[in-house]
Automatic annotation (TrEMBL):
Residue positions of the active site: 2 (nucleophile), 606 (for fru-6p isomerization activity)
Protein name: Glutamine--fructose-6-phosphate aminotransferase [isomerizing]
Enzyme Commission designation: 2.6.1.16
Lineage summary: Bacteria, Pseudomonadati, Bacteroidota, Bacteroidia, Marinilabiliales
BP GO annotations: amino sugar biosynthetic process; carbohydrate metabolic process; fructose 6-phosphate metabolic process; protein N-linked glycosylation; UDP-N-acetylglucosamine metabolic process
Subunit note: Homodimer.
Annotated localization: Cytoplasm
Name of encoding gene: glmS
PANTHER family: GLUCOSAMINE--FRUCTOSE-6-PHOSPHATE AMINOTRANSFERASE, ISOMERIZING (PTHR10937), GLUTAMINE--FRUCTOSE-6-PHOSPHATE TRANSAMINASE (ISOMERIZING) (PTHR10937:SF0)
Length: 611
């Protein structure tokens, strides 16, 4: 959701805050603002991107070695200058930047209004600033205590940085639900919603836990909980580097991340697959392997693209490990009061590791005896810290809001887990196990072959860039890939697109087909090939335009489809990893040709940390 950054130290804060906000902009880009403390507090904020904020502030007084910044994904109040953060309390004592949602803000607002408070904005954050100030002035307590007392009255999620005019040189930070990381420097501290703004300065970080409050000065950091119990900071070393968050020669992070997949998939199975011994070794789930092997059923919870990866996992676990699987939207699962038994195993999949609904689903499972694993891409993220065990995808930081390399790395982890479990449960013979590992190892090379054909896919994109609808269809393991392809197109080109199991078309969606409807048909060389040929004939019979993803050398569909995109031949088990690549590239080029902001599509954010 929003991105927060702050600094206290000996350096000039302004450039650190601006660069930090640029790094966090993928979290939300509706408005941006900073507060700089240098005797008095200067606030600069406006609707739009960080570059608009730079234009606004660069000729102003931007001095000061302490400050905070915010880039917004609007929840309460439309994107405009007044609703932009930081928010100042009515009597000017407190300044606040906030990532999250104060659910009981309207109740608190009414109460404060009855005490004479007026509000400039529609935001929940301004309510919090006034609540803190009201407690501070009425109860004559320190700023830190006023913050803790106010937060005991708050319902919802927050990552916060707060300053008080009466206590200069100090930042107060607090977290519940929304992520907040402290970077520990030499006589200086950095704060941010994730590590990307911090890695340039230090690799020593503290991940704040829920209901923790940090009082930070240039030369000190005090950590406690809302109940005033002191906490010992748990300093971790992070292995993220600047190169990971640089576009390099690519025009967009999404394109860079699409082209990184041969490497990121190798990184996902590096040190986890030994070809010599035909073995898969997943250290992160070793401790819970007994639960995995005797699991009665697997329940996968996730959102968005991660949910699509979960659907691929369902097919893989059922096919190769013979365990029944259910895939749940985390947002529905958490409120449905699901029935969970001791021998159930839950897998939460999340790129960011911070998605609020998935986190809440995990906490729901925590109320039962079921075991919960995580598949995450961000080390130290909340989901990785709140699950019993798990596997990191090692796809490297993903900055493009439309997930690409994280998706293929999630599927690679799920494939390794399904094959390992299949072997452990003797559902897979040693020769099948060995053969499928070999197939998986060959995927990066085959993806390189597909990437070399990008120009041909761009030519197809040029034909369909002006359509207003599109349909995607696939069978078996390629059905979830059809859903993912449709999501990619929706997310970045704003074309309405739907994915369906190909056989489902006849039960309604086929009514949408005419000469203006492009249909992406995923017809790799597997058991359902003949069926896909019939489904394509049904579309062609209604004059639909067919773009078919087929196996290299396909002879039949080539004659029927309007356009074909070839992928190298492969075993069905790994076909999702290949078939999704052309769909990522196609949506990228269509969005580019429509002049859309590919890396920061409208209304979206990279990590959805609120409900
Ligand atoms: C995918 O392109 C989207 N960014 C979105 O659907 C995303 O997959 C979803 O928000 C889940 O995020 P997570 O994997 O970080 O939990």
């Amino acid at each position: 959701m929003c991105g927060i950054v702050a600094y206290v130290g000996g350096r000039t804060a302004y450039p650190i805050l601006i660069k930090g906000l640029q790094r966090l902009e993928y979290r939300g880009y509706d408005s941006a603002g900073i507060a700089l403390l240098n005797g008095e507090t200067h606030v600069y904020k406006c609707k739009g991107k960080v570059k608009d904020l730079e234009m606004l502030s660069k000729d102003q007084d931007i001095s000061g070695t302490i400050g905070m910044g915010h880039t917004r994904w609007a929840t309460h109040g439309e994107p405009n200058d007044v609703n932009a953060h930081p928010h100042q309390s009515m009597n000017g004592k407190f300044f606040v930047v906030h990532n999250g949602i104060i659910e009981n803000y309207s109740h608190l607002r009414k109460e404060l209004k009855s005490r004479g408070y007026q509000f400039k904005s529609e935001t929940d954050t301004e309510v919090l600033a006034n609540l803190i100030e009201n407690i501070y002035l009425e109860q004559k307590v320190t700023a830190e205590l006023a913050v803790r007392l106010a937060l005991t009255r708050v319902v919802g999620a927050y990552g916060l940085v707060i300053t008080c005019e009466d206590e200069p040189g100090q930042l107060i930070a607090a977290r519940k639900g929304s992520p907040l990381v402290v970077g520990v420097g030499d006589n200086e501290y950095f704060l941010a919603s994730d590590a990307t703004p911090i890695v340039e300065y230090t690799d020593q970080v503290i991940y704040l836990n829920d209901e923790e409050v940090a009082v930070i000065r240039q030369d000190s950091l005090e950590l406690k909980n809302l109940g005033n119990d002191s906490k010992t900071p748990d300093i971790k070393k992070i292995s993220l580097s600047i190169d990971h968050i640089d576009k390099g020669d690519y025009e967009h992070f999404m394109l860079k991340e699409i082209h990184e997949q041969p490497v990121t998939i190798q990184d996902t199975f590096r040190g986890r697959i030994s070809m010599d011994e035909s073995k898969i070794f997943l250290g992160g789930i070793l401790d819970v392997m007994p639960q995995l092997i005797k699991a009665r059923r697997i329940i996968i919870v996730a959102c968005g693209t991660s949910w699509h990866a979960g659907l691929v996992g369902e097919y893989l676990f059922e096919q190769y490990a013979r365990i029944p699987v259910e895939v749940e939207y985390a947002s529905e699962f958490r409120y449905r009061d699901p029935i969970l038994e001791k021998d159930d195993l839950v897998i939460a999949i999340s790129q960011s590791g911070e998605t609020a609904d998935t986190l809440a689903a995990i906490r729901k499972v925590r109320e039962t005896d079921a075991t919960i694993l995580g598949i995450c891409n961000v080390a130290g993220s909340s989901i990785s810290r709140e699950t019993d065990a798990g596997v990191y995808t090692h796809a490297g930081i993903e900055i493009g809001v439309a997930s690409t390399k994280a998706f293929t790395s999630q599927i690679t982890v799920l494939t390794m887990m399904a094959l390992l479990l299949g072997s452990k449960r003797q559902a897979l013979s040693a020769s099948e196990y060995k053969h499928l590992i070999k197939e998986l190892i060959q995927v990066p090379k085959k993806i390189e072959e597909i990437l070399k054909e990008e120009h041909k896919i761009a030519e197809i994109a040029a034909v369909y860039k002006d359509v207003s609808n599109a349909l995607y269809m696939g069978r078996g393991l390629l059905f979830p890939v059809a859903l993912e392809g449709a999501l990619k197109l929706k997310e970045i080109s704003y074309i309405h697109a739907e994915g369906y199991p190909a056989a489902e078309m006849k039960h309604g969606p086929i009514a949408l087909i005419d000469e203006n409807m492009p249909v992406l048909a995923l017809a790799a060389n597997d058991e359902s090939y003949e069926k896909m040929v019939s489904n394509i004939q049904e579309v062609k019979a209604r004059k639909g335009k067919v773009i078919a993803v087929v196996t290299k050398g396909d002879k039949i569909i080539r004659k029927m489809a309007d356009h074909i995109i070839e992928i190298p031949d492969c075993h069905e088990a790994v076909s999702p990893l290949l078939a999704v690549i052309p769909l990522q590239i196609l949506s990228y080029h269509i969005a580019l040709m429509r002049g859309c902001n590919v890396d920061q599509p409208r209304n979206l954010a990279k990590s959805v940390t609120v409900e």
